[in-house]
Amino acid sequence: MEYNIYQQVAYNLSIWILTGITLASIGMIVLSNFVGTPSELALSKENKILLEKLEETKQTITNLDQQLQDLNQRDAEIYRSILGLEKALDEEALLGIGGSNLYEEYEIYSENASEILAWTSQKLDELERRVNVQDLSLEEIKAQYNENKSALKNIPAIKPGSGILLSGFGMRRHPVLGYVRPHDGLDFRADIGSDVYATGDGEVILAKRYGTFGRTLIIDHGFGYKTLYAHLSDYEDDINVGTKVKRGQIIAKSGNTGLTEGPHLHYEVHFNDKPVDPLLYLFADISPEEYLLFKQIAQTNNKSY
Questions:
Q1: Are 298 and 168 in contact (CB under 8 A)?
Q2: 74-110 confidence digits (pLDDT tens)
Q3: pTM for this entry
Q4: Domain coordinates in residue numbering, the chain
C-alpha cells in the first residue's frame, strides 16, 4: 500500500517535471522565434544604440562638411580675389572616385547600418581630400601674401575693435526707426571708451559728426578701399583729416553718438564706393572658428544697433 502511494507521488512529480520542461521549451521556442533570446534582445538593444550613435556621427560630419564649404567659398571669393590668384584647384574633380563599390564590405550588416556606414566612410574620405585641397590653397595664398605685404597692408583686414559681432551686413530692422533697411556694415559690442583700430594703412579723409552715424571717422586705404567707423565718443589726439594711419593703430574711442540703441561700434568697408560685407575682410586676425561664429551671428540676428 505504502509502495503504491510512493509510486503515485513519484509519477505525479514526473508529470509535473515533464510538463514544466515542455512548457519551458515551448516558451523558449516562442521567445526565440517571435521575441528573441535574452542575448538576442540585449544585442538588438545594443544595435539600436549603435545606430543612434551612427546617426549622430552622420549629422556631425554633415556640419563639418558645410563649415569646410563655407571656408572654401570665403577662400575663393575674398582671399584669392584680393591677392589676384587664379581659381583654386578643381575640388570636385579631386573628390571624384570612379570604379567599383569601395564600401561593399558593409553590405553584410543590416540595411540601415550598411547605408550609414557606407555614407560615413565615403564622407570621411571626401572630407580628407577636401581638407588637403584647402591646405594646398591656403599655402598658395600665404606665399602670395608674403610676396605682396607692402601693397596688402593697405587692405582692411582686421577687426576694428575687440568686441564680439552683434549684427551683420544686409537688410536689418533699425532699433530706433523700427523698419527694415540696408545695414551696410557690422556692429560690434563696445563699451564707451573702448579702443578702435585702423583696419589697414591709409589716410583719414573724414573726422566729424556725420548724420545718424554721430561722431564718425573715414579712412581712404587706396586701391579702391575705404573704411568707416561710427558712433564714436572721441578721436585720438593726433587723428585729423589728412593723418596717415597704420593697420592696428588706435584711431578713436567707441561710443553712443548718433541714432543708436546703445553703445557699440559700427564698421563699414567700401570698395570702389560701394559697401561690401566687412565680414569677408576679417582674415588677418580671426580664426576659421571665429569666422564661422561671426557668420552664424550675422545670419541669425535680423536687427542692427
A1: yes
A2: 666 555 656 656 665 555 445 554 444 656 665 666 6
A3: 0.59
A4: 38-147, 165-300
d(CA 138, CA 144): 10
Distance CA 74, CA 54 (A): 30
Q: Quick one: CA torsion of 74, 79, 81, 82, rounded to 10 degrees?
A: 140
Side-chain-side CA neighbours of residue 15 (13 Å) = 6
C-alpha cell at 89: 584647384
Q: What is the DSSP letter of 168?
A: -
Neighbour tally for 68: CB within 10 Å: 18
Q: What's the pLDDT band for 9 if we cut at 50, 70, 90? A: very low
165 CB-side CA count, 13 A? 25
3-class state of residue 254 by DSSP: strand
- Encode pLDDT of 219-245 as tens digits: 999 989 999 999 999 999 999 999 999
- End-to-end Cα separation, the chain, in angstroms: 106
- pLDDT the model gives residue 133: 72
The CATH homologous superfamily of the domain defined by 165-300: Glucose Permease (Domain IIA) (2.70.70.10)
Query: CB within 8 A of 28, min separation 6: which ones?
Result: 37
Give the pLDDT of residue 158: 93
Q: What is the DSSP string of 83-123?
A: HTPPP---HHHHH---SS-TTGGGGGS-HHHHHHHHHHHHH
- Between CA 240 and CA 215 the distance in angstroms is 13
Residue 150 corresponds to which cell in the numbers above?
A: 607692402
Phi and psi at 89, nearest 5°, equal -55, 145
Most confidently modeled range among 40-44, 120-124, 288-292: 288-292
Entry field: residues in the chain = 305
